[in-house]
Each structure stands twice: as structure tokens, then as C-alpha cells.
Amino acid sequence: MDLRRLRVGEWIAAASGVVLVVSLFLPWYQVKVPPHGSTALGIGGTLDLSAWEVFSVVDVLLFALGVLAVALLVVTAAQPTAAVGVASDALLTILAAVVAVITTIRVANVPGALEIPDHLGVDTGRAPFTWIGLAAVFGVLIGAVIAMRDERLSGNGEPTDSTGLPVSAPPEIEVIPSPPRGLADG
């Protein structure tokens, strides 16, 4: 495993993936019951609900995206060629775009489990980790796009071999002369 192969995009995607996975276990939504109201939730107080408790399929997609974002970092660092990392970047970009759209829709609409009739006096809302989780999803997407766009193996003046490892001098390129004119016509 060589961490020198990693580009900024993989680091952004992996860090966002870790934040996303952690945020899934923290409160995404809050249900507030007024002190004078009595409901099935109890008399007064606040009920915090994590993404695992509110979502049915979206939580699994979010968890998979976070794990795959971290896996992208490991795969890119562990593989002897850059091709596997570049292909993984492209696949993660597609998945992250789909999950970002789905998550944005779910965050915009309060999930069905929280739709409590207004006459009960219960206030439902999004907790801060809703926005942190959504930002992490877009962080994975942005990191994957940056990594996918950055297919170079080295920076200017920093030559590397075909695996992405630094070398002291750029590889020699063999120059083959073109065939003489007379032979090509015949």
C-alpha cells in the first residue's frame, strides 16, 4: 500500500464517507411534544431519531456510500496500477450522484414516520446531523468527481512510473522513424 498514489479527491471522498457513516447513528430528526400535550410519545419532551430509525432503504444506501468512499481510498492506495483507482472513481461518482439526489429528496420531505397530525401539538423537525449527513453525501460526490477528473499520475516536474510511484527521471520515449516515401506507395 502506497499512500503517495492518493490524490486530493480520494482523501475528500474518504473523509466525507467517514463523516456520513458516523452521522447515520446521530439524530437526524427531532419530535418535540409540548408539556401540556399527551401523545403516544409521552407527555412533553424531545425524541431524537437517527437516520437508521427514520429511513427504510435510504439509510442502507447512505451507509454503503460511506463505506465505498473509504474503500476507494484503500483500493487506490493498494493497487499496483492507477487504472483500478480511476475506474473506482468513476463508479463511485455515479453512485454518489444517485444517492445525493435521493437523499436531497428525503431531507426536503419529512419522512413518513414523522408525519404526526397537527392537532396533537407535536413539532417535527430536522436535527443538525441531517444537514451534516447531506453535506457529507455531497462531499463524497465532489471528492469522487475531483478524483475522477484528476487522472494524472504526477504533478508538473514530478515524474512517476506507470504505477504512480515517483521516479528520479521521466521514462525515455522510443522514437521510431516513419517509413520512406517510396515503400509506402508500393
Detailed description of the structure:
The protein has 186 residues and is an alpha+beta fold. It has one domain (3-157): Butyryl-CoA Dehydrogenase, subunit A, domain 3, CATH 1.20.140. It is built from six helices and three strands, in the order H-E-E-H-H-H-E-H-H. A three-stranded antiparallel sheet has the order 2-1-3. It starts with 7 loop residues before the first helix and ends with a helix. The mean pLDDT is 77.
What descriptive keywords fit this protein?
single chain, alpha+beta
CATH class: Mainly Alpha
**Uncertain stretches of 5 or more adjacent residues:** none
- Proportion of residues in β-strands: 5-15%
Main-sheet strand order equals 2-1-3
- Rounded to the nearest angstrom, the distance between the terminal CA atoms is 53 Å
Number of helices: 6
- Envelope shape: elongated
Q: Which CATH architecture is right?
A: Up-down Bundle
Please estimate the helix content.
40-55%
pLDDT averaged residue by residue? 77
In short:
By secondary structure, the chain is of the alpha+beta class.
Task: Outline the fold blueprint.
Elements lengths: L7 H16 L3 E13 L2 E9 H4 L3 H21 L3 H27 L14 E4 L1 H22 L31 H5 L1
Antiparallel strand pairs: 1-2, 1-3
Helix pairs in contact: 1-3, 1-5, 3-4, 4-5
